Amino acid sequence: MIVMAVFIAFVAQLVNLQFFSGTRLRAEGTAQREIYLTVAADRGTIFDRDGNEMAITVPSTSIYANPQAIADPVATAHVLAQMLGIDAVAEAELVDSISDRSKTFVYVQRFVDDGVAQAILSLNLAGIDGVTEPKREQVAGGLARNVVGRTDPFGVGAAGLELQYEKVLRGLDGTMVRETNHSGRTMPGGTKVVEAARPGTDLVLTIDRSMQFQVEQALIQRVEELVAKGGNAIVLDTVSGEVLAISSVRRNDQGVVEVTSGNLAAVEAHEPGSVAKIFSVAATIDSGAATPSTTYQVPGFFVFDEGTDYEYTIKDAYPHDVEPMTLHDILVHSSNIGTMMAAESIGVDGLHDYLDEFGFGHMTGLEYPGESAGSLRDADQFRGSEKATITYGYGFSTTSLQLVSAVNAVANGGVYVAPRLIRSTIDDKGVIWGTPIGDTHRVISESTADTMAKILTDVVCAGTGTRAQVKGISVAGKTGTGYKVQDNGTYVTEDGTRAYFATFVGFLPAADPKVTILVSIDEPNPSSRDRFGGTAAAPVFAKLAQVAIQERGIVPPPGDNGCPPAAS
Amino acid sequence: MAGALKTTPRRTTTRPATPRRVTTRGAEQRQSTRLRPVPKKVSTKKHPTSKIAKAVAEKSASRGSRRLILVVLTVVIGLVLVMLAVVSFQTRIAERQMRIDRIESQIRAERDRYNALRVERSRLREPGRLEANAMSLGMEPGKGADFTSVDPITVAQVLVSTGGLDPELLETSVDPFAAYGEFKSIVGGKP
């Protein structure tokens, strides 16, 4: 009977353990051996337009500790410090963190080199294990990093498109439970995904990686040659407004010219200088106030508010007496006074309206982090000589991206098309979604645009932009050499020198434009002859035009043989 | 057992001591309260039949305990079988879970490998690397493009002589995102 009783008691306990207390005991046991981990969603990839990865998330091993399973934190930390090559201070911090037995998960180091991670894990240190986590990498040597931006150490967008599209790219994290043994190491088959992570959406940029590389290289080379401070270059698809390449370079503190981490072409605004004459002349022609053959008697200089404290003298780039100039010649030879006289016929209000339509004073629609809208005051806020200087590019400011977009409106038959950087997206199910073309609106008539294209072709063939010529294909464009405002609020430094912002903006083929290109050189050597738009920036334009021809397969339309031989 | 009692002469002598045993079961139940002390008296008198009764009682007890053992055994065996079934079932679940874990692990590993290959491919196609390699082979960037106009008659003659080209052969553009989209649709949401 005793045996029976014992047996019954045994069975009763068994039943109790299995059926009545089982759930609770299992839960307690599970809690002792399970660790819940967040499964980071794969961040969306950023591609160029041809499917080349620009930024991608790759698996990387992070080493973590389970302090509850570490018997000797000091010794463990010392071994880890040796393996990871961390200093004494960091080792002391590590001792503190892995001694905190209230926690079951503490990072030792994230994104450890694969070889080092394997070496650490092979030691089978109690309470030390590894977890695979997604790590963001900019492949292709960091091309277009000014646009792509970067993420912080936790994979969160911190700049550029990574920041702008953070919500889209990051996806949705999941949860994973991992069973560990008494020494804190993962038990075989003990990893279970509770909730799968949803990968982020991929971005397909409008950028052409190959073109971007060549643009960056050409710009760096030119900035080095001119001992300049920096430069910007942008290549747009004329019809769609897609940004094919956008680069900003800057000389760093060590004097090395490098691609900037910020997209200065969309962030920094400058007075455009003579490039703005395109808009003044286009506005004059489009409003019917003048034709390309309208002739003006243009003096070599003009004095504003003569005899007052606000007296200001405007001069042309080259000295000349009063001479008759057609509107065509005024633009071809970039006459400040001629442009002022021509635009006078439409008034500041009229010109302001056109500048507004060309996109000045407004964001481009990219909504790029830190993007500047430049500045364009209301027409009634222009005073004295400002009413004149605005006609040739002083008195308002623009980013390089705004400027190239405005010139692109002329190239695109008079229709402004907002630039865009995202061509399509690929969602977590692999479905490709095209992005719509940006905002478009007509600024000038098609005939005015055609007229402007012809005049701008002459600027390249016979005017200030001859160094932008490309053999066998017509190029239309305009030079601009702006003085940069100094810290003292004037255009001249205390020691009497000036800082230049040399620009060339153009498009090709002039008769049927496919690409619009801007090149700006920031502060070229002021004592060099190559400090002007036509000498500093135009040669880079010609080089980039060749790149565009090869990369985009551009051929001249029938009858287009480029500038006449005599003009070359 | 009943037959054996009948053949025993002493059985008849004992009958008067317990005359009411022949009464109907219903009557016995009705008078059960009153009759309860009687068996005690019989047993204290050390009646000659007590040994038999004891034997019978022992046999009855033995029979009862055997029955109890049987019941207990049956219950225990049943329980053991149930538990075995439960353990077996849980083992199967664990086996399958481990198999799922292995497959998921393989998927993860393959996906990681796919991503690693993408990175490697991207690095191999990096323009800077290609340029450096090309220059080390003695190549240099093109200086420009020459646009040559081709006589339309010559184009026509070539088309006639070659019979034109199959349009499918002319289609060289491949959507670089098609294969990627397919891959993502399959394993994109997987662990």
What keyword list fits this structure?
heterodimer, A: 568 residues, alpha+beta, Penicillin-binding protein 2a (Domain 2), Beta-lactamase, seven-stranded mixed sheet, 33% helix, elongated, B: 191 residues, mainly alpha, 10 helices, 0% strand, disordered N terminus
Q: Low-confidence parts of chain B, pLDDT < 50 over ≥5 residues? A: 1-28, 30-38, 40-44
CATH class of the largest domain in chain A: Alpha Beta
CATH topology of the largest domain in chain A, by name, is Beta-lactamase
Global structural class of chain B: mainly alpha
Helix content of chain B: over 70%
- For the termini of chain B, the CA-CA separation is 76 Å
Assembly state: heterodimer
Number of structural domains of chain A? 2
Task: Write the CATH homologous superfamily of the largest domain in chain A.
Answer: DD-peptidase/beta-lactamase superfamily
| CATH architecture annotation of the largest domain in chain A | 3-Layer(aba) Sandwich
Tell me the fraction of residues in β-strands of chain B, as a range: under 5%
Provide the β-strand percentage band of chain A.
25-35%
What is the number of strand segments of chain B? 0
DSSP E strands of chain A, number = 26
Structure annotation, total helices of chain B: 10
Kindly state the percentage of residues in helix of chain A: 25-40%
Task: Name the chain pair with the biggest interface and residue counts per chain.
Answer: A-B, 58 and 45 residues
Could you tell me how far the N terminus lies from the C terminus of chain A, measured between alpha carbons in angstroms? 120 Å
